[in-house]
């Protein structure tokens, strides 16, 4: 029976449900419930995957919670799956039976690929369908706020528009066209605007590509600047966090929540931000300081905010962001259909099976 040593991420640990016969029944039930939104047949799907990939079904799946735990488990590993754990020469030396390294992201900076090549061990990036869905959601929130589609949804009469504070009134048709008789001000173009991406990682890179398709100017910030080749690939320029907020028409947040990113965006950035800036957060709410964001909204300094993640989930009827018409909030649905996750799991299992077989 192969041994898979994996980072104990809340998504990756589905491998234990699918492949490990000793998986906790509670976890199996929990994942069946999680997938039931779109895949009520999830238990049957797991059976089908096990039949399809007998090389890795069954497997012993070892979940590790830290780099140290990961290293301790490597001597028995036939395959490893990581997301942000490091894998280099030290880890290779601890894993004499290793046949494949599967990264759970496209960004391979955490893996020493030349060292893996020297051992003849494939080190694979992973293009997550879920990440595509999350990036799409971020872009959809940007566009909804730029075009004010939520603010104006179904407001089709002068009376309805005026009730919502818009000065709707027809133009003098003897002289002008009548477009935007609703007199909605502040509608933005994506074309020619500047998008600031906080974290040009797996999700942020999809967003950058789509921004390039809209002829947006892409700038980014993160802990470490990318190399020249990657910056050219995504047509993105590195700036500081403060400069990003000062220059951007749109900002999209794509960093994980940890000690270094909690409260990363605060009063300083928001007070000095470009007037009318639109901010989208599909990462974690606490990356942006709540009170600073509310103050910026109240002062009218922010043109719009899109959030798929919230300071409390599930939320409350008295959430302080609800009264703002220029705030679009979705209930943590950016990952899209659970089928996306299932597609990712099967693709990863297929890669591992091939790596172990070769």
Structure class: alpha/beta
In the sheet with the most strands, the strands line up as 8-7-6-9-10-11-12
Rg computed from alpha carbons, rounded to a whole number of angstroms: 24 Å
Q: What overall form do the CA principal axes indicate?
A: elongated
Strand content: 5-15%
- Looking at the structure, the CATH topology of the largest domain is Rossmann fold
Q: In DSSP terms, counting alpha (H) and pi (I) runs of 4 or more, how many helices?
A: 14
Which regions contain 5 or more consecutive residues with pLDDT less than 50? none
CATH class of the largest domain: Alpha Beta
Number of domains: 2
Helical residue percent band: 25-40%
CATH architecture of the largest domain: 3-Layer(aba) Sandwich
Distance between the termini: 16 Å
The strand count comes to: 12
The CATH superfamily of the largest domain is NAD(P)-binding Rossmann-like Domain
The biggest sheet, with number of strands, parallel, antiparallel or mixed sense and barrel status, is:
7 strands, parallel
Order of helices and strands: EHHHEHEHEHEHHEHEHEHEHEHEEH
Explain this structure.
With 358 residues, this protein is of the alpha/beta class. It folds into 2 domains: 3-126, NAD(P)-binding Rossmann-like Domain (Rossmann fold), CATH 3.40.50.720; 131-148 and 186-329, NAD(P)-binding Rossmann-like Domain (Rossmann fold), CATH 3.40.50. It is built from 14 helices and 12 strands. The chain has helices at residues 14-19, 25-35, 42-52, 67-73, 89-93, 113-118, 129-146, 158-163, 202-213, 228-233, 241-247, 267-271, 290-298, 338-357; strands spanning 3-7, 60-64, 79-82, 100-103, 123-124, 194-198, 217-221, 236-238, 250-253, 277-281, 302-307, 327-329. It has a 7-stranded parallel β-sheet, sandwiched between helices. A 5-stranded parallel β-sheet has the order 2-1-3-4-5. Helix 7 (129-146) crosses helix 9 (202-213). The longest helix has 20 residues, at 338-357. 37% of the residues are buried. The mean pLDDT is 96.
């Amino acid at each position: 029976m192969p041994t898979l040593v994996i980072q104990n991420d809340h998504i990756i640990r589905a491998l234990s449900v699918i492949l490990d016969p000793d998986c906790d029944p509670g976890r199996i039930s929990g994942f069946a419930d999680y997938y039931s939104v779109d895949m009520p047949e999830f238990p049957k799907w797991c059976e089908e995957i096990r039949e399809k990939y007998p090389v890795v079904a069954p497997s012993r799946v070892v979940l590790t919670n830290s780099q140290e735990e990961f290293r301790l488990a490597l001597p028995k590993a036939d395959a490893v799956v990581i997301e942000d754990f490091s894998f280099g020469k030290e880890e290779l030396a601890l894993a004499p039976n290793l046949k494949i390294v599967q990264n759970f992201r496209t960004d391979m900076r955490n893996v020493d690929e030349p060292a893996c090549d020297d051992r003849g061990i494939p080190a694979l990036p992973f293009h997550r369908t879920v990440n595509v869905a999350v990036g799409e959601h971020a872009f959809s929130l940007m566009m909804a706020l730029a075009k004010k589609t939520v603010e104006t949804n179904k407001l089709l009469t002068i009376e309805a528009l005026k009730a919502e504070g818009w000065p709707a009134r027809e133009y003098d048709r003897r002289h002008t066209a009548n477009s935007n008789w609703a007199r909605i001000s502040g509608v933005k173009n994506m074309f020619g605007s500047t998008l600031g991406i906080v974290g040009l990682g797996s999700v942020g890179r999809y967003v950058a590509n789509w921004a390039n398709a809209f002829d947006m100017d892409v700038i980014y910030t993160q802990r470490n600047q990318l190399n020249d080749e990657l910056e050219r690939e995504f047509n993105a320029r590195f700036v500081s966090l403060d400069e990003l907020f000062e220059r951007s028409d749109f900002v999209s947040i794509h960093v994980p929540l940890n000690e270094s990113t909690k409260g990363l965006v605060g009063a300083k950035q928001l007070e000095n931000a470009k007037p009318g800036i639109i901010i989208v957060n599909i990462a974690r709410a606490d990356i942006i300081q709540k009170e600073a964001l509310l103050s910026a909204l109240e002062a009218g300094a922010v043109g719009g905010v899109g959030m798929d993640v919230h300071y409390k989930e599930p939320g409350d009827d008295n959430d302080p962001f609800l009264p703002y018409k220029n705030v679009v909030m979705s209930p943590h649905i950016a990952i899209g259909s659970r089928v996306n996750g299932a597609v990712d799991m099967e693709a990863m299992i297929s890669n591992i099976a091939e790596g172990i077989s070769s």
